[in-house]
Amino acid sequence: MTANVLKREDTAGIGKKFLTSRNVIFFCAAAAGGISALPDINASAIASANISTSAEPSDVVSQTEALISSNEPDFSVPLDILYTDEDVSLPHGEIVFNDTVDVPLAYAVSFDTCPDQLVLAHRADVIAAPASLTKVMTLYIAALAMSDENIEFNLNTEIEVPEIAIERARGLANFEDLSVGDRYPLRMFMTGAGSRSDAISTVTIAIATGRALGWEGSDRDILDQFVLKMRQVARAMGMNETGFVNVTGDSGNYGTPEDFLRLMRTASNDAPRVFRIAMGNAHINLPGMTPNTIHSSQFFRNNPNDTEIDKTGFLREAGYNEMGVYRVNSVRVTFSIFGADSKRNRSDIATDIINAVENIDPEGFCSNPSTQAMTIRQAQRRTTQLALAD
Fold first, then answer.
1. What value does the mean pLDDT take over residues 334-350?
2. 85: which residues sit within 8 A by CB, 6+ positions away?
3. What global pTM score does this model have?
4. Which residues lie closer than 8 Å to 239 by C-beta, 6 or more apart?
5. According to the model, what pLDDT value does residue 55 have?
6. What is d(CA 90, CA 234) in angstroms, rounded to the nearest whole number?
7. How many Å apart are CA 229 and CA 87, to the nearest integer?
């Protein structure tokens, strides 16, 4: 890959937990508050199935069928959590971010061989708005529900667009071709939410998941319950700085690049089949739902053969965000980016991340747990110094 110009990045520590007061307007304490279902393949099984992420739209259907017929590993989050009524409050109360100021860049990167050890990091523990990266949690809960053999809920289950999905999608990225009552297989909504960030698909998935699990009440009640499940699952994953208030990634959610790195890694490990269908193809095919046939990530479209899954997001108060799982040689690398300046800048930063880790020996890095994470600039300087030394 060709090195790109990185967005502003200072190299002074990354221990600051919140954005500065000029970035956060309001902070307060929270109140209490088809086919039969299949077990969910690991990454090597997907690779052995010879599924291409760069397939043209005409090939996507047959590749999706191949993924549907494969198996998934056990989930690291227990299924029982979906049937537990425990209330989980927001870890830092409610936070409203200012959408009129420049959003600082932040990112976190890790090797799959030592996932809890950051190899590249900048403001990785700073709380910010995740935007549509939130949808990965929504999709994860749907995937977890699909692992329940006692309910009929799978990728081929036809689900219907409810009125509330159209309401909640106003002002957000959405498929204008979708209307109340439209019915499609769950897998198509998963792809719409994951690859194109469609808010209608996302809310439809959440409602359908809750109904399949036997939750009672109105659609609004189901969404409220779903958000509580998002908080429960986040805590179970160790996303201790993350707070969810909606399923789509609209304003109000918050978290850190490090927390969302953990979410992306867990999703790709626990439900690789589902997430390859949702966000693992550079080209998509959703006839009747949208004429769009490409993934929303420029980075993914530029690197379709080595990217396993990718999710983008944008809000004015968040900037341009992205998470991905990428293969560098034989090692999987997971990254999360918050606060890029533009789609192009977001893609350039992802490319810079991959360029940097390509020059770091995973085995050597992981064998020394005390090794400190570098910024991209520090990694670039290190590479230059090593080249000059040779």
1. 97
2. none
3. 0.85
4. 255, 259, 260, 262, 263
5. 57
6. 11
7. 9
Rounded to an integer, the average pLDDT of 23-45 is 38
Q: Is the dihedral of CA 36, 37, 40, 43 positive or negative?
A: positive
Q: Taking a C-beta distance cutoff of 8 angstroms, is the pair 55, 283 a contact? A: yes
Three-class secondary structure of residue 104 per DSSP:
coil
Taking the CB of residue 56, how many other CB atoms lie within 10 A of it?
12
- Residue 373's pLDDT is what? 95
* DSSP-derived secondary structure letter, 91: B
pLDDT at 3: 37
- Residue written as token pair 């890029």: 340
Each residue of 196-245: pLDDT tens digit?
999 999 999 999 999 999 999 999 999 999 999 999 999 999 999 999 99
SS3 label, residue 308: strand
Strands (E), 10-56: 24-28
CB atoms within 10 A of CB 8: 8
Residues 6 or more apart whose Cβ sits within 8 Å of residue 34: 154, 155, 156, 157, 158, 185
Label residues 153-164 b or e (16+ Cβ within 10 Å = b).
bbbebebebbeb
Nearest by Cα to 350 from 332, 364, 338: 338
3-state SS class at 18: strand
Q: In angstroms, how far is CA 390 from the centroid of its own chain?
A: 40
Mean of the pLDDT values across residues 258-284? 97
SS (H, E, C) 219-287: HHHHHHHHHHHHHHHHHHHCCCCCECCCCCCCCCCEECHHHHHHHHHHHHHHCHHHHHHHHCCCECCCC
Locus of tokens 């209608």: 200
What is the rounded CA–CA span in Å between residue 274 and residue 75? 12
Element (H, E) at 144: helix 135-146
Average pLDDT, the chain: 86
Which of the residue ranges 47-61, 107-121, 160-174 would you say has the lowest mean pLDDT? 47-61
Q: How confident is the model at residue 181 (pLDDT cuts 50, 70, 90)?
A: very high
- 3-state secondary structure at position 358: coil
Residues in the chain, overall count: 390
- 122 and 376 Cβ atoms separated by less than 8 Å: yes
Q: Two tokens at 140?
A: 């994860």
